């Protein structure tokens, strides 16, 4: 392990970090990612000007991510094992996915479209002011499936690779992609480095996430696999495609399709098979993400127990 920690230690810390997240949720005040976002905005405002935008974007990424990641690594060397679990808690977003999407479900169940539109606009970049229930349900389910990888499984993967500092580096890089990785006049060149680095860091976790959705689909596993293999290549994102296609196939619903961004209608490739998403499918998407998290925890703990028994017998 890159951390110098044993697999049993990593598995125990992984479990502790996830439990902290489920019990405490994201901090109400002084959220570290909110503070990082302000830092990133300040760096971008200073560097995203003039020529050599790609090089400036790469420099901005390094200035935003590397010092904090190095500090996390130094802290982990001196503060002991528990800091790894605390760093994971600060980075993972499993509970926040629930907290941000379940109010949408409640609003849809009571027919409160105004609240559902507002709540949905907090988690997606598409326009929601005129969205109807199927549009909001589709947006909520897609956000859960994709962010299950970005906010949960990618973080868990890099924690297992490099402990708390690995989770920090991944989550900061993913946050910069969400902030700068747009193909528009402002960010097309400046944010390209952030987008490509996130693609590289997410490549393996995204496919493990998609595979987890296939495994948990039960009778729909073949459908989830088929959607992954046939639909994902049509998506421009090399990582969102497999995750969302597999997840939609696992749920047996149709996602993707039309969505409005900045007032313009975009026809996105289809995802999944079956009826259009409803509010209940947001709950099913959350349960799929939670089930995949439990699967990862089980596999990590089982591997740790095997290593422990093997070393003990030896």
Description:
By secondary structure, the protein is mostly helical. The chain has one domain (7-313). Helix content is 72%, strand content 5%. It has eleven helices and two strands, in the order H-H-H-H-H-H-H-H-H-H-E-E-H. Strands 1-2 form a two-stranded antiparallel ribbon. The longest helix has 48 residues, at 133-180. The mean pLDDT is 93.
Structure, briefly:
With 314 residues, the protein is mainly alpha-helical. It has helices at 7-24, 32-47, 53-79, 82-91, 94-109, 113-121, 133-180, 192-216, 221-231, 240-251, 279-313, and strands spanning 254-261, 264-272.
The profile of the biggest β sheet is: 2 strands, antiparallel
- What is the CA–CA distance across the termini? 20 Å
Helix-strand string: HHHHHHHHHHEEH
CA radius of gyration is: 20 Å
Class from secondary-structure proportions: mainly alpha
* Silhouette: globular
Rounded average pLDDT: 93
Q: Number of DSSP strands?
A: 2
The proportion of residues in beta strands is 5-15%
Strand order of the largest sheet: 1-2
The total domain count is 1
Low-confidence stretches: none
Enumerate how many helices there are, as a single number. 11
Percentage of residues in helical conformation: over 70%
